[in-house]
Amino acid sequence: MSYGIYIGRNRTADGIAYLAGYGDEPSSHWLEICPRATHPEGSTITVGVTQQADMPGHLSAIPQAPETLRNMRVSYSYYLGVPAPLTNGGLNECGVAVRDIWSTSRAELRAMTPKDQTGPNYSDLARIIVERARTAREGVDLIGRLIAEHGYSTYGGNSHIIADPEEAWVVIEFAGGHGLWCAERLGPDSIRASRPGYIGEMPERPNEDFLFPPHFFDTAREQGWWSPEDGPFHVNRIYGDGKHRWDGVAWIEDEMRARAARPEKITLQDVFWSISTERLTGDTAGYGQVVPLTHPRHDALRMMWHAPVGPVTAPLLPVFLNQPSVPPAWRQHRYLTTGESHRFLDRRKEEADPDTVSQIPQGIETGPSAFYAFKRLMHLAFQCPDPILTEVWRHWRAVETSTNAKLEDTLRAASILLDADEDGLATQVLGEFSEARFAEALADCQALSEAAHVRLRAMGALNMTRKPLTPEQIW
């Protein structure tokens, strides 16, 4: 399902636009930093879905770009029939960020989808954007061109938010095999949540705020779903599920607009809250991400805030695009990674049967998994929201505030080093700051989990059944 929210720079206290959200997938999630890379002429990438997908299709090869940009992104290991690893959201060296969010197409379009569909799937599009797009608008054009040239593999409809420091776009890709998509531009005054993604009324000709392929209106007329006599073309009512803004979307947009109306406008803490509130965030959230959309003096200073699970029970901490690597605890582990239950870590078996050997290094598995550790804390805290969840929430919000207070000096020190052409030292400063915060948070998580487990066990409140415990059972 997933969730994303864009907040324009005129609505924030610091004058910075933000793209935030998380992914809803029942699998492992991990953070990775991918270097800039060049690719030989004739290189291809595999895209699409398999016959095992809910809406089956065939994998195909499309041309790889001659060069792909440095980017950091969250990947995950499973969605039915979609080859792993999958990409949900990230940021590249040009300051382009993307979020993938579901958006259901109307039933007739879903029924029309060919059983042998080919072309990029939702994850392929997100990955290609962070690898190739130098502006948000370029990301929209990429989607349109890829669908026109190669088709689109859908599970029933999807959307993306693509953003850079100047603007953002909501892009919806529809099921049906007709190559239908459309995009709406978001500006500095916008506040837009997607869960699911939606677009309302749009003009019949593309302009600076709305984009779509030439046959977009013709298809609706041919199917008898719309004619000019019906009035304005409402995208969600004609091609979508007809619900437009779902209740959760309406609630968070209205809440953030109310906060934007205050003299202090929307603060960074408000942005964090928008993806960590218990009302929208729970066990389904595989991670949390907040991207400040800026053009710093140096691309090496680009960063995002990352939480290894839903930030209702985890802190959002800074990770820098140019730091040397991601700490091992935040990389891919076997926990919830599809297929790992029947694979061996022993590399000596690789020659005999490579399909049975894990792709996760043995060394990674000798240490903790942040995803597992924070999931454990989440499960413990949710068993006793008052007081354990409340205490965990307050602790991580204090950690975020403390980290943000230290961040300015770290960025200033790194900027001074970059001005002096000391790129290596700047990278070291940024990497050490991020890794120290990650290590402290993991240690806190483990301590909080042990304390919560002891308390719940002492109260006889460890829920070992499918039935939720009542307050009387807890206390």
Q: What would a concise description of this structure say?
A:
The chain has 475 residues and is an alpha+beta fold. The protein is 34% helix and 19% strand.
Work out the radius of gyration: 23 Å
Shape: globular
Strand content: 15-25%
Distance between the termini: 35 Å
| Main beta-sheet annotation | 8 strands, antiparallel
Strand tally = 20
Oligomer: single chain
Structural class designation: alpha+beta
Mean pLDDT: 94
- State the helicity in percent bands: 25-40%
Contiguous uncertain segments of 5+ residues: none
By DSSP (H or I, 4+ residues per run), the number of helices equals: 12
Output the strand order for the largest sheet.
Answer: 3-8-9-10-11-12-13-16
Descriptive terms for the model:
12 helices, six-stranded antiparallel sheet, eight-stranded antiparallel sheet
How would you describe this protein?
With 475 residues, the protein is α+β, with helices and mostly antiparallel strands. Helices cover 34% and strands 19% of the residues. The chain is built from 12 helices and 20 strands. The protein has helices at 107-112, 122-132, 136-150, 216-222, 235-239, 247-260, 268-276, 362-365, 370-383, 385-419, 423-458, 471-474, and strands at 3-7, 17-22, 29-34, 37-38, 44-47, 60-63, 67-68, 71-76, 86-92, 97-102, 158-163, 168-173, 181-186, 191-194, 201-202, 210-211, 233-234, 288-293, 303-307, 317-320. Strands 3-8-9-10-11-12-13-16 form an 8-stranded antiparallel beta sheet. A 6-stranded antiparallel beta sheet has the order 14-1-2-18-19-20. The chain has a two-stranded antiparallel sheet with strand order 4-7. Strand 11 and strand 12 (168-173) form a beta hairpin. Helix 9 packs antiparallel against helix 10 (385-419), helix 9 packs parallel to helix 11 (423-458) and helix 10 runs antiparallel to helix 11 (423-458). The protein is globular, with a radius of gyration of 23 Å. The mean pLDDT is 94.
